[in-house]
Design goal:
The complex is a heterotetramer. Helix content of chain A is 81%, strand content 0%. By secondary structure, chain A is mostly helical. Chain A has one domain: Cytochrome c oxidase, subunit III, four-helix bundle (Four Helix Bundle (Hemerythrin (Met), subunit A)), CATH 1.20.120. Chain B has one domain: Cytochrome c oxidase-like, subunit I domain (Cytochrome C Oxidase, Chain A), CATH 1.20.210. The N terminus and C terminus of chain B are likely disordered. Chain D is α+β, with helices and mostly antiparallel strands. Chain D folds into two domains: 140 residues, no CATH class; 131 residues, Immunoglobulin-like. Chain D contains six helices and ten strands, in the order H-H-H-H-H-E-E-E-E-E-E-E-E-E-E-H. Chain D is elongated and about 90 Å long. Classes of the chains: A mainly alpha, B mainly alpha, C mainly alpha, D alpha+beta. The interface between A and C is large, with 61 and 56 residues. Strand 2 of chain C pairs antiparallel with strand 8 of chain D.
Chain lengths: 191, 584, 127, 279
């Protein structure tokens, strides 16, 4: 359907339509994550005692997860390079690796949540945990959506279709990565 | 890039494009269409239906206020709970489910591709998804009226802890459904907004420079960008509020270090720009309608554009004037008072531009023009009374009184109702291929405008006299039951009923004209913009030949021309149709 | 893009990956020293550096039209605005003619808001 | 461009007369509106607002003054624009032989037409900001020394007022706690501490021009000085649930004798000493 639309093929702003849209998505995501991080920071600075709760987060798991996401992003980037060469199947394989990275990230995150909850560190016990669960949950939803899109685009790329989308999902995936840098440092590192 | 260069030559692409869609099932045609015009109409119809609900609520609680504790005709006795529910849902519906879908989504969808000379939105399926998500959100909202405990009744601003604790608001499911409905709606408009922005930026017809874009498109795009930049914190806030309601967190609960004032900030950080999100499209319609019916070039395209961008930027700095007395630090109020009052500068410039456009023009008082002109006059009232509220010292008295409501409705009624009517009556021939009945339209216009002023003028005075908003019956307050106050309230309430009844005229006109009205020409008003250069109503794919743009959209009565308009896509002399030199 | 150039690009991506992998380790190390101020300093630097690398070398923001980074910066600016205009009310616990009593109570103590109780009594009475 | 089309120049008079007529009307409007306001203020008519609602506290007049200043300034703009608007509507109505003018010149040359009012608007804005912030500062940011301090506690759906009693100190045994009835002495500076037990409420006394939200978890301080004896409404001005419209209270502004009687009465009638355990 959309292939027939002339409008989609135009680029009066000097960039492909899909890429423009991805950047628009990112621009609109910034206030969403900012909207939860800014209040958290305010409260965190206002409540030095939250440091005890922050100390209960497992920073090793957090660091490992960071590495995992960075690696996953790398594969998205390599998929982009493969797509640039027109190598659809290779791009698809690398995209899938990136997606699996995201899935493993989610599993580790789930384990982390489970460990927190089993230690009775539930959102009810302190607003710190409320922010922790909301922010990482919001980020997790983005990872989940990203994984789904990665796999869908991998399926297309395998057939050599819509190779330009490999780059687009890559941009989104790196953005999710950048958000994680902030969450990781703000929640795990700074106590 | 390849496609772009093809379209640049105005090649008649994709012949037979329109024929593909002939044999469609009605469901595919009306409910599953990716055509931007059909989606626009879906938004429009949903918005109008929601307006009926919101309007009915307004009638019920206005009647209760004038004649407290007597059964309201067609409704029954109003209890405090149902009163609160109705004022809350009236606000929610009118802002999020009428103004946004009609002004931004319906007209944005309809106008942007047509005005920039594209055959559809750049992401038609995303567009369809946006409407469907919006529809789901409307269904959730209406569903919330009927759950046990009733609909949410904590005012449309939903200040916690009232909205966060069911022990306070007594509507355990209603309040959650309300937040969810609103948050889902934001997602729908984010999808739609991204589509609008990308379409207007990327899918412009060849030759259309940024000063050739009609202002209606500009305004919708600026509004979408504002929406995108401001809604994020409230989406995050809604997530937090839902967690507070259902998962026992304490983001907004002071018991464990949460802060109710935080929600107010998150809400108004979005809530104030939101006013301009719906204002700008309405101003865009005016910028289209005024030049057409005064047959004169718009005074100051760039002035209007830059003033609007200035308003948009400035509106991010003013939100806490809604919170002057609600627990923010009094020192911060000084900052916000200053920024708030300064926003009068760009708004005043916009008004000057509109008024100056009328100078030495030739005004035809058609129905759309009447609506557009009444917008200027009524919005002036709303604009100047806003200064009282932005000035912190005066706001101490006015805050949360009917003065605020009157001010708000003097801005929002022009925006949402007058703006929508102006747009609807103006583009009706294009949308449905038929003309509205002019006489009926005039009667409807005058009744609506006069009754509107009778509703809200008296309430400025009851506000000054100390009537506070959201109070279900003033009978409990001896100071407020003086005969003059009661009279003012009664005038207002009766006028509300009159205005409600007058809308029957509009709906009758609307549906009658849709099927039986006079057939519309392609360009009935001799307008310049591209949407008038395709058939009425435009087929799937809009243009038979994709247009190329040569000039700004407001070239009326150009001295070099014999006819008083100059369509944007008409090739200049020498390139296409020839005009003898010096014929003037 | 030629195959050779793409391979060069790939090698560059690996280099960026190495940097991005080691930066969080740096902040982890800073945190393990136990010096709070060092952890904050290093994290801020690491956050900004890694974002810079990811955005410029992976997302290729510099290759896009100029309005793209500006738009994103606009979003970030809006968040800074939100932070600094809200912080006086939410971050501080007292101000001009007001005091946030509940914020002064340690967050993990469940404490009903009972303004009629004398100050300080609340925490004891509700244990 | 313009020289090639003399028809404009002759038919069109240009923009000067428009500017002249608009400025004339604006200044006429200014004189009328500002004059009226000044007349009221100097003729002791500062009670323009007070005719609608009594001004019974010491700062009510200041707030009314802000309102009047703003009314004068925006009234001038309002009537001037509306006048220009309707005059233009009449002048430019479509009629035979009337041809609209084409703006041949470039935007920025005509811009003076917008920029002049623009600078005027900025000047007016500055006046408004200064006046408003001054009164705000005096009402909300600083307070004269207290003669007495009361505590106002809002809850769903009623008010609890804690008066300091005869020793004029809060949180002592002789405090008087009342529900929905606040007693304050006339002509004394009353400081209040505003608190809420559950949700947001708002302590509003329209005749005092007094309004302040009660935020749960916070104590917000404010002041007022009643200047007229009598009983007046207290309203809750922030949506606080189903009973929001049903939490009216009264404030009794009492002469020294009445207030002394009230204190004595309460002390005698208190079933429990100090009223500490009324709650």
């Amino acid at each position: 359907m959309s292939g027939q639309i002339i409008a989609t093929g135009r680029s009066a702003a000097g960039m492909p339509t899909g890429k423009l849209a991805v950047w628009m998505v990112i621009a609109s995501e910034i206030p969403i994550f900012g909207g939860i991080l800014a209040p958290y920071l305010m409260h965190r600075i206002g409540h030095p005692d939250w440091g005890q709760m922050a100390a209960s987060l497992n920073v090793w798991i957090g660091t490992f997860n960071t590495g995992l996401l960075v690696t996953s992003s790398l594969f998205a980037m390599l998929a982009h390079a493969a797509a640039e060469r027109g190598d659809g199947p290779l791009a698809a394989a690398r995209l899938r690796l990136a997606a699996y990275g995201g899935l493993v990230f989610l599993c580790i995150k789930a384990y982390e949540w489970y460990a927190k909850i089993s230690h009775d560190h539930v959102p009810q016990t302190g607003t710190f945990y409320g922010y922790y669960f909301s922010a990482t949950g919001l980020h997790g939803i983005h990872i989940l959506a990203g994984v789904a899109i990665l796999l869908a685009i991998a399926a297309q790329a395998e057939k050599g279709k819509n190779l330009q989308r490999v780059e687009l999902i890559g941009i989104y995936w790196h953005f999710v990565d950048v958000v994680w840098f902030f969450l990781f440092h703000i929640f795990y590192i700074i106590r | 890039m390849a496609l772009h260069s093809i379209t640049a030559h105005g090649m008649p692409e994709l012949q037979g494009h329109h024929d593909v869609h002939h044999e469609e099932h009605w469901f595919l045609k009306y409910c599953w269409s990716t055509d931007h015009k059909m989606i626009a109409k879906q938004y429009l119809v949903t918005g109008l239906l929601m307006a009926l609900i919101g309007g009915f609520f307004a009638y019920v609680f206005r009647w209760q206020l004038a004649f407290p504790n007597q059964p309201v005709p067609f409704f029954g006795v109003v209890t405090p709970a149902s009163y609160n529910m109705m004022i809350t849902q009236h606000g929610t519906i009118m802002i999020f489910y009428v103004a946004m879908p009609v002004l931004l989504a319906a007209f944005g969808n309809y106008l942007i591709p047509l005005m920039v000379g594209a055959d559809d939105m750049v992401f038609p399926r995303l567009n369809r998804a946006s409407y469907q998500v919006f529809l789901i959100s409307s269904v959730i909202l209406i569903w919330s009226f009927f759950v046990p405990g009733g609909g949410f009744g904590g005012a449309w601003t939903a200040y916690p802890p009232l909205s966060a604790g069911s022990q306070y608001n007594l509507t355990p499911s209603g309040s959650t459904l309300w937040v969810v409905a609103v948050a889902v709606e934001f997602v729908a408009f984010l999808m739609g907004g991204i589509n609008f922005i990308v379409t207007a930026m990327n899918a412009r017809a060849p030759g259309m420079k940024f000063v050739d874009v009609p202002l209606a498109v500009w305004m919708i795009v600026i509004a979408s960008v504002m929406f995108m930049m401001s809604v994020g914190p409230l989406i995050a806030g809604s997530v937090m509020l839902v967690m507070d309601q259902n998962f026992g967190t304490h983001f907004f609960d002071p018991r464990t270090g949460g802060d109710p004032v935080l929600w107010q900030h998150l809400f108004w950080f979005f809530g104030h720009p939101e006013v301009y999100v719906v204002l700008l499209p309405a101003l865009g319609f005016l910028a289209e309608i005024l030049p057409v019916f005064s047959r004169k070039k718009l005074f100051g395209y760039r002035t209007l554009l830059y003033s609007s961008i200035g308003t948009a930027c400035l509106s991010f700095f003013v939100w806490a004037h809604h919170q002057f007395i609600s627990g923010i630090d009094p020192r911060m109020a000084n900052v916000f008072a200053a920024t708030t009052v300064l926003i009068s500068i760009p708004i005043a410039e916009i008004m000057f531009v509109f008024i100056a456009t009328l100078y030495r023009s030739s005004i035809q008082f058609t129905v759309p023009m009447l609506w557009a002109l009444s917008f200027v006059a009524e919005f002036l009232v709303g604009g100047v009374t806003g200064i009282f509220l932005g000035a912190s010292g005066a706001d101490i008295h006015f805050h949360d009184t009917y003065f605020v409501l009157a001010h708000f409705h003097y801005t929002f009624f022009p925006i949402a109702i007058i703006g929508s009517f102006a747009g609807l009556t103006y583009w009706f021939p294009k949308m449905f291929g038929r003309h509205l009945n002019e006489g009926l339209g005039r009667v409807h216009f005058w009744i609506t405008i006069i009754s509107f002023n009778f509703i809200w003028m008296p309430l400025f005075f009851t506000g000054i006299m100390g009537d506070h908003r959201r109070i279900y019956s003033f009978a409990n307050f001896p100071d407020l039951m003086t005969p003059d106050r009661i009279l003012l309230r009664e005038i207002s309430s009766v006028a509300t009923a009159v205005m409600g009844i007058a809308q029957v005229l509009f709906f009758a006109n609307f549906f009658w004209s849709m099927y039986k009205g006079r057939k519309a020409e392609d360009n009935p008003y001799n307008a310049n913009t591209l949407e008038w250069r395709c058939p009425s109503p435009p087929p799937h794919g809009n243009f038979a030949v994709m247009p190329t743009v040569y000039r700004s959209p407001y070239e009326y009565n150009h001295p070099d021309r014999e006819v008083d308009f100059w369509p944007q896509d008409e090739p200049p002399a020498g390139q296409g149709e020839l005009r003898p030199e010096g014929a003037h | 893009m030629s195959t050779e150039a793409a391979t060069r690009e790939e090698r560059k991506y690996w280099r960026i990956w190495a940097i991005l992998i080691s930066l969080p380790l740096l902040s982890l190390a800073a945190q393990q020293t136990g010096m709070g101020w060092l952890a904050i300093l290093v994290s801020v630097v690491v956050m900004l550096t890694s974002t810079w690398f990811a955005v410029t070398t992976w997302m290729h923001v510099h290759l896009e039209p100029r309005f793209v980074p500006y738009l994103c910066l606009l979003g970030i600016a809006a968040m800074f605005l939100l932070f600094f205009m809200v912080a006086p009310d939410v971050m501080s616990h007292e101000g001009n003619n007001w005091q946030n009593r509940s914020a002064d109570t340690p967050a993990h103590i469940e404490r009903p808001v009972d303004p009629l109780a004398p100050p300080g009594a609340a925490a004891e009475t509700h244990h | 461009m313009a020289e090639q089309h003399p028809s404009h120049e002759s038919g069109g008079i240009g923009w000067q007369p428009l500017a002249r007529s608009v400025f004339l009307t604006t200044f006429l409007g200014a004189v009328i509106v500002v004059g009226t306001v000044l007349f009221y203020i100097f003729a002791g008519g500062e009670d323009l607002i007070a005719r609608l609602i009594p001004a019974n506290s010491s700062f009510a007049g200041d707030i009314d003054f802000v309102i009047l200043v703003i009314a004068g300034i925006v009234g001038f703009w309002f009537f001037a624009s509306l006048f220009a608007f309707f005059v233009l509507l009449y002048q430019s109505r479509r009629r035979p032989g009337h041809k609209p003018e084409y703006l041949a010149k470039h935007d920025h040359q005509l811009h003076t037409w917008v920029s002049w009012p623009h600078w005027l608007v900025i000047a007016c804005d500055l006046i408004i900001i200064i006046v408003a912030v001054k009164v705000w500062h005096q009402v909300k940011q600083v307070a004269p020394p207290a003669d007495t301090v009361i505590r106002v506690v809002a809850q769903q759906w009623g008010w609890t007022f804690r008066h300091p009693g005869t020793d004029n100190k809060l949180d002592t045994v002789d405090d008087i706690v009342t529900i929905d009835r606040l007693h304050v002495p006339l002509d004394q500076v009353v400081h209040f501490e505003l608190q809420s037990k559950d949700v947001m409420h708002d302590f509003s006394v329209p005749v005092f021009r007094l309004k302040q939200d009660a935020v749960p978890g916070r104590t917000i301080k404010g002041w007022f000085k009643p200047v007229k004896a009598g009983a007046f409404d207290i309203q809750c001005a922030e949506m606080c649930g189903i009973g929001h419209g049903l939490m009216p209270a009264r404030i009794f502004v009492e002469t020294p004798e009445q207030h002394a009687a009230f204190l004595e009465d309460s002390a005698r009638n208190a079933s429990v000493p100090g009223g500490q355990s009324i709650y």
